[in-house]
Each structure stands twice: as C-alpha cells, then as structure tokens.
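One thing: mind reviewing this one?
=====
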Amino acid sequence: MNQPKTDPRIQRTRKLIMDSFMELSGKKEFKDITITDIAAEAMINRATFYYHFEDIYDLLEKVLSEVLLVNLDCSNYQHKELNEDVITSIFVAITNFQQSLSNRCHRGYEDTIARNIREQLEIIFYKMLLKPHHTEEDEGLKITAVILSWGIYGASVEWKRKSNEITPEDFIQLAIPHLLPRDNGV
C-alpha cells in the first residue's frame, strides 16, 4: 500500500517553522523562546504552529531528530557491516552534530539531545546487526544495539571534554582495536 504524499505547502511551512526556531535558538536560550517568537519569525500565526507541532518541546525534538538524521545519513549504513570505517563515520557524525549544536545548545537541551542521539543510533545499529532477510525481531540484537548506542554517545561526550586535544577520528581509533574482533590468522 502506498503512503499518501504530503502536500509540499505543509512541508514548506513545517521547514519554515523549524528554520525559524533554529534562527531564534542562535539568539536566545531555549527557555526564553516562545511560540509567539517562532510564529513572528516564521510569519505565521500560532494556530499554524500548533497544526504542525504539539508544543515547543515537540518542535525541539523534531528539529534535533532531523538535524541528527542529516548528519548521520542513516540510509548510508542500512546494509553495511559493522566495521572500523562505519564506527568511525558514525562517531564523527555524532561529534559534528554535537559541535554544531554547541553554540545553540544551552542548558535544558542536553537530555533531549542525548535521548535523540541514542535512539537514532539504536535504530542504525539494530538494522546493521540484523541479518538480511531476517524478519523476526531479535531481543539480543536490540540489547546489543542499545549497548553500542550508549557507548558511542558516551564516547562522544568524553571526546567533547577533550576536543581541543584530539580529533574525533583519532579518538575513536584508539578504541576500535578493542571493540572489533581481531583476525589472528587462525
């Protein structure tokens, strides 16, 4: 069954609201941004805002998810094997995402950001771990995806503390030999 296409006007308005929020978040702390501010910036009325989003927290979550998905380019990993290049690529995307938010990310964002990153990573890792043509859900793989997502996110937080000392690529490369099975020529 085909999904109905979303009206381009709805997509444009939604993007306009999200872009307006991003613009405002560069000027104000999240706690100081109101729906009225966003509506004025986007040149829409409040009812239009509420047509697209439940409240400002729903908007924040959607903006963070979309920005993160663009950074991660999830479709790029869907049928790949979990290896050094993939782990490095995902880690760099997460650190780039966190750096891009650092100017906008004021107190109050951290829990939402962390949850979004971990949820997106869980989905990516689960799809990578799931063998092709495997239709049943696998609880063990879900748990593995959770462990990987928390681990990569935690490593990105640790890297952020040391970001002036080491690049994301060099940072994650220190751990990769301990994460992935080694071929000992056996």
User: Anything to note?
Assistant: The helical segments are 8-25, 35-42, 46-52, 56-72, 84-102, 110-129, 139-161, 168-179.
